[in-house]
Amino acid sequence: MSDPLDDVFAALADPTRRTILAMLLEDDMAVTDVAEPFEMSLAAISKHLAILTRAGLISQEKRGRVKWCKLEPDALRGASVWMQGFGQFEPVNLDAFERFLESEFNTAPGDHSPEA
Amino acid sequence: MSDPLDDVFAALADPTRRTILAMLLEDDMAVTDVAEPFEMSLAAISKHLAILTRAGLISQEKRGRVKWCKLEPDALRGASVWMQGFGQFEPVNLDAFERFLESEFNTAPGDHSPEA
DNA sequence: ACGATCGTCAACCATTTGGTTGAATATGCT
DNA sequence: AGCATATTCAACCAAATGGTTGACGATCGT
């Protein structure tokens, strides 16, 4: 009954969560490591990660006692498409959009070289 | 001290507000007319519009006793760019993106034909 | 000047959010 | 077995959110 965009945008509305996503852009991380740079409890970060998971923006896989967090960038697609409905642009042709991105950046899928 | 993205994404997280934005895509509207299709008080809509205004997503101009609401799609740019930092796409060349959109849809700026 | 319309304000309310702490659970190490 | 580490759970809290209603100030039409 509730639009997934609700969860995605709500998840993105918090700066801590956006920072977490940016961190995960570089590499998958364990919950404890995600929490390390923040001045807030591990439990708080755990909640943030749960929210990101519910929004589909990350996935969490438990391996041993460590739970690994992985960015799921595809979850941003819906939101991105929605937003592109504004501006002067018409409802967007995603296939063409992807072709455009490919030709622009010549990037193989999943091949993002971390800059740090 | 607080990131404008906080306000933009928070504004977008509510389905009522997203619907309002979609309505304004077709045309500028008076507050009362924005409120009409919703089953909630005018005051509630007025608050939603205030939130959209604070996020920069719309502007409001009072002409006579009527306050006109106008979509400000540029406010989505920052959020859009932020999001495009994810996925497999690298930090995006917006100019190229716009050229792409132009060539795809061949649409004069502001010329959006409403489908309803 | 009067009444109707447009929109906001103020007070209130229930629910959600973002954080805390301490206990609990699950796994790994020796 | 026993202890340390990784993570969540539960209870709690303050503040923010999304809604209501009723009163209010502006402006329009007659």
Topology at a glance:
Two copies of one chain form a homodimer.
Chain A: H1 4-12, H2 15-26, E1 29-30, H3 31-35, H4 42-54, E2 58-63, E3 66-71, H5 75-84, H6 94-105
Antiparallel strand pairs in A: 1-3, 2-3
The first copy, chain A, binds a DNA duplex (30 and 30 nucleotides) through residues 10, 14, 16, 30-32, 40-44, 46-48, 50-51, 62, 64-67.
Give a structural overview:
The structure is a homodimer of 116-residue chains. Chain A has 116 residues and is α+β, with helices and mostly antiparallel strands. Chain A is 53% helix and 12% strand. Chain A has helices spanning 4-12, 15-26, 31-35, 42-54, 75-84, 94-105, and strands at residues 29-30, 58-63, 66-71. In chain A, helix 1 (4-12) runs antiparallel to helix 4. The radius of gyration of chain A is 16 Å and the shape is elongated. The relative contact order of chain A is 0.14. The A-B interface holds A 2-3, 5-6, 9-10, 12-15, 18, 21-22, 25, 71, 73-74, 76-77, 79-80, 82-90, 92-93, 96-97, 100-101, 104-105, 107-112 and B 2-3, 5-6, 9-10, 12-15, 18, 21-22, 25, 71, 73-74, 76-77, 79-80, 82-90, 93, 96-97, 100-101, 104-105, 107, 109-112. The first copy, chain A, binds a DNA duplex (30 and 30 nucleotides) through residues 10, 14, 16, 30-32, 40-44, 46-48, 50-51, 62, 64-67. Chains A, B: GO terms for molecular function: DNA-binding transcription factor activity. Chains A, B: It holds the Pfam family HTH_5. Chains A, B: InterPro entries: ArsR-like_HTH, HTH_ArsR_DNA-bd_dom, WH-like_DNA-bd_sf, WH_DNA-bd_sf. Chains A, B: Residues 1-93 form the HTH arsR-type domain.
